[in-house]
Structure formats: structure tokens, C-alpha cells
Write a structure and sequence with these properties.
Subunit structure: Homotetramer.
Distance between the termini: 62 Å
CATH topology of the largest domain: Aspartate Aminotransferase, domain 2
Bound molecules: pyridoxal-5'-phosphate
Keywords: Amino-acid biosynthesis, Methionine biosynthesis, Pyridoxal phosphate, Transferase
CATH architecture of the largest domain: 3-Layer(aba) Sandwich
Protein name: O-succinylhomoserine sulfhydrylase
Oligomer: single chain
GO molecular function, one term: pyridoxal phosphate binding
Cofactor: pyridoxal 5'-phosphate
Radius of gyration: 22 Å
Largest sheet: 7 strands, mixed
CATH superfamily of the largest domain: Type I PLP-dependent aspartate aminotransferase-like (Major domain)
Structural class: alpha/beta
Length: about 425
């Protein structure tokens, strides 16, 4: 059977208008072919065929919409883009090969030599490297400031500042940014406000409603949710996304159709997963806070968290990542981590499986000693990305860590 685009049954946008993120996660953007399949179809093809030479010319010339080549037009990728754009409340999304490719594509499309970026200090380690090492090579300078220090943001802005870039909540210390305030500062200065929404996902936080211009995701994390694929996406107004799409078409950091299909499946369960992550994380944070060998717990769901009220205002839940300082140093942190038997020792996050990490020697290991101090990455800090296992079983496994701290010689109970 030949597949003609005209035979697609597209779910009309108006059918889903006004519906909640939970519904959009399951339904938005789905295409249906003439086979009337119920699940999302997958199109693993590099190129597409034309009915005639004239049609090929019209497609290439942009006179007729339609698929050309999967570096920049693939229906499965477009379905993923349409779904995440609907969930974030944005006009358009552009999917990329990874979260880093999403950030790179945004910068390449929207910044030029001589521009200046202000970025929060606690961003994902590789984001730091991208700005400090690579964007700097092309004449884009970046100043790093504390996520929560409004005065530092204001004084870092210069005439050349074209972008404010943040993650909120931050990793691993769960600091929360005032998005409305930063959006105002950005727009007063003719700069774009870019929010990496990886930790909250649109289920918990919709930054466009707080003045963000562009949203970045590492789809690798919660959007997939089951640790299968690497991918990313940029969401924003059509005018800006056209530029990002243009970069993607020319430079090629494209999402594969297979990965897009996995992410479509991931999005369907994202709302219920995020609620389970939040419930487990809050319960664990409260439990950790009571342990005698824990010095400090970082989780915005705790009433003692300095931005607890702000998080309640901006977010529908406090997320699945928390961290804590043990009494002691690296030795205690490693002994605690090594005593767990179920929880995975891995730096990945956003998975249904709970993971445990020592940030100072893994995710943030490339930071200089001073940068670690500035970012609060101490040797006794442990990060947990809380999964959706039974919370009692998570406590049982973490209890092994606490036992090991009390009995250093036969700690592995
Ligand atoms: C993982 C991550 C990234 C990078 O995403 P990749 O898919 O690994 O390239 C960017 N931002 C945040 C907050 C992340 O956690």
C-alpha cells in the first residue's frame, strides 16, 4: 500500500483544546495512518518518495508541505514534538539527539559572537562545559551566578546579554528559582529567558506560564522514564523554533524515529509516574531528615526549605530528586552508598528505578575545588533520584547504609 499524507487521520487540535496535561500526554500529536492502528506508528525511514519529479521539486522548494528526509522531517519525531509542545503550552517543539544537543541548537540558532549569557551556577555539569569551553570559543561569554540571588543576576546583566539560562529546581541541591522575577529581568534587557525543565517536566511546572521564552528538556530523563534512550527537545514560539529547526536541518543533531517512538510511549505514563516519584521522594525526605547520621536534607517539599513557598507556587509537586549531607566526609558517603543492595549506583536520574550518586566524584567531579564549594558539592553529599518502587523497600535498602555507618566493620547487613 502506498502511504499518502492526505490519508493521514490527524486528530484535530480543537478536539483536545483546554484539556489537561494528563490527557495531552496520552493523546496530543498522534497521527494515524490508513491502517487505523491504535498505538503510535513508527516510521524508521531515512527518506520519503514522491509521486512525480514535479512533486519532489515542490517539496524541496518548500512550495508543498510534506516529508523529505528524516534529518528534518519524520512523522514519528513530529508526533513527539507536537505532544510535548501541547503539554508545555508552547507553539512548537524541535526534537534533538540529546538534551545537550537541545541546548547547543538553541545557542547556535539564537546567539552570535559577542553575545553574553548569564547562567545559574548549579546547572548540569556538561551544560557548564558547553558554555565555558565551547560557546566561549565562538565569542559567546558566560557569567555564572547563584540561582537564587536576584541581585547577582541583575548585576551580571550587560548590554550584550542575550540569554538568561537556568534549571529549577537545581541539581543536586534542589534550589528553586523565581521564574517570574528572572523573566522580567531578561525581558527588560531584551534577552531570552531559557529554562531547562528536565527535573519537573510539564506535569509539575510549565515555565512558559512564568515568562520563559524557551524550554529545554533532556528527554533521556523523566520523559522516557525507563532509562532506554538519549534525546532532547526545545519548546517555544514558532518564530524562535524556526531558527532552531533551521540549525537542526543544517547541522543534523536529529532525534531518531525509534527514540521518538519510545519517548511518545514514555509521555503516556509521565503524569502518573511523576506523581509516584513526588510521593516517594517527599516521604523519603521526611524520613531522612529524622536520621541521626544525616546532617541536612535538600528537598523543596520540606517546610524548612528556603524556597518551599515559591516551589509550592510554581510547581504542582516537588519532584523526584533529593540530596542529603551525611555526618562525615567522602568515606562515610561511599560506605553508605556501597551498603545499599537494591538501589542502583548510577549517575542517571528520572528513571522508575531509584538511583544513588556521589556528586563530588561523578556528576560534578570535573568542577574545580572552588567551584565545588560555590555550588555546595561537598564530599559528604549523596543524591538520590527516587524511583517508583515501594517506599518501604527503599527505606529498607537505605537503612543498610545507615547500619554501615554505625558498624563500619560489618556494615553490609
Ligand atoms: C541530563 C541532563 C541534560 C543533558 O541531557 P542529555 O540527554 O544527557 O544530553 C541537560 N540538563 C539536565 C538538567 C540534565 O539532567
Amino acid at each position: 500500500m502506498t502511504f499518502r499524507r492526505e490519508e493521514n487521520v490527524w486528530i484535530p487540535e480543537s478536539d483536545l483544546e483546554g484539556m489537561s496535561v494528563d490527557t495531552l500526554a496520552v493523546r496530543a500529536g498522534q497521527i494515524r495512518t490508513g491502517q487505523l492502528e491504535h498505538s503510535d506508528p513508527i516510521f524508521p525511514t531515512s527518506s520519503f518518495v514522491y509521486g512525480s519529479a514535479a512533486q519532489a521539486a515542490a517539496r524541496f522548494g518548500g512550495d508543498e508541505p510534506g516529508n523529505i528526509y528524516s534529518r528534518f522531517t519524520n512523522p514519528t519525531v513530529q508526533a513527539f514534538e507536537a505532544r510535548i509542545a501541547a503539554m508545555e503550552g508552547g507553539e512548537r517543539a524541535v526534537a534533538t539527539a540529546s538534551g545537550m544537543a537541545a541546548i547547543l541548537s538553541t545557542c547556535m540558532a539564537l546567539l552570535k559572537s559577542g553575545d553574553h549569557v548569564v547562567c545559574s551556577r548549579g546547572v548540569f555539569g556538561t551544560t557548564n562545559v558547553l558554555f565555558q569551553k565551547y560557546m566561549a570559543k565562538f565569542g559567546v561569554e558566560t557569567t555564572f551566578v547563584s540561582l537564587t540571588d536576584m541581585e547577582a543576576w541583575s548585576s551580571a546583566v550587560r548590554a550584550e546579554t542575550r540569554m538568561l539560562f537556568i534549571e529549577t529546581p537545581s541539581n543536586p541541591l534542589c534550589e528553586v528559582a523565581d521564574m517570574d522575577g528572572l523573566a522580567h529581568l531578561a525581558h527588560e534587557n531584551d534577552a531570552l529567558f531559557v529554562v531547562d525543565n528536565c527535573f519537573c517536566t510539564p506535569v509539575l511546572q510549565r515555565p512558559l506560564e512564568h515568562g520563559a521564552d524557551i524550554i529545554i528538556h533532556s528527554a533521556t530523563k523523566y520523559l522516557d522514564g525507563q532509562g532506554r534512550c538519549v534525546g532532547g527537545v526545545v519548546v517555544g514560539p514558532s518564530k524562535l523554533m524556526e531558527e532552531v529547526y533551521g540549525f537542526l536541518r543544517s547541522a543534523g543533531p536529529t532525534m531518531s524515529p525509534f527514540n521518538a517512538w519510545v519517548f511518545l510511549k514514555g509521555l503516556e505514563t509521565l503524569p502518573i509516574r511523576m506523581r509516584a516519584h513526588c510521593d516517594n521522594a517527599l516521604e523519603l525526605a521526611l524520613w531522612l531528615d529524622k536520621q541521626p547520621t544525616v546532617a541536612e536534607v535538600f528537598y523543596a517539599g520540606l517546610q524548612t526549605h528556603p524556597q518551599h513557598e515559591l516551589a509550592k507556587k510554581q510547581q504542582k509537586g516537588f519532584g523526584g530528586v533529593l540530596s542529603f549531607r551525611l555526618k562525615g566526609g567522602r568515606e562515610e558517603a561511599w560506605r553508605f552508598i556501597d551498603a545499599t543492595r537494591m538501589i542502583s549506583i548510577t549517575a542517571n536520574l528520572g528513571d522508575v528505578k531509584t538511583t544513588i550518586t556521589h556528586p563530588a566524584t561523578t556528576t560534578h567531579g570535573r568542577l574545580s575545588a572552588e567551584d565545588k564549594v560555590a555550588a555546595g558539592i561537598t564530599e559528604n553529599l549523596v543524591r538520590i533520584s527516587v524511583g517508583i518502587e515501594a517506599v518501604e523497600d527503599l527505606k529498607t535498602d537505605l537503612e543498610r547504609g545507615f547500619q554501615a555507618l554505625q558498624n563500619p566493620n560489618n556494615g553490609n547487613v
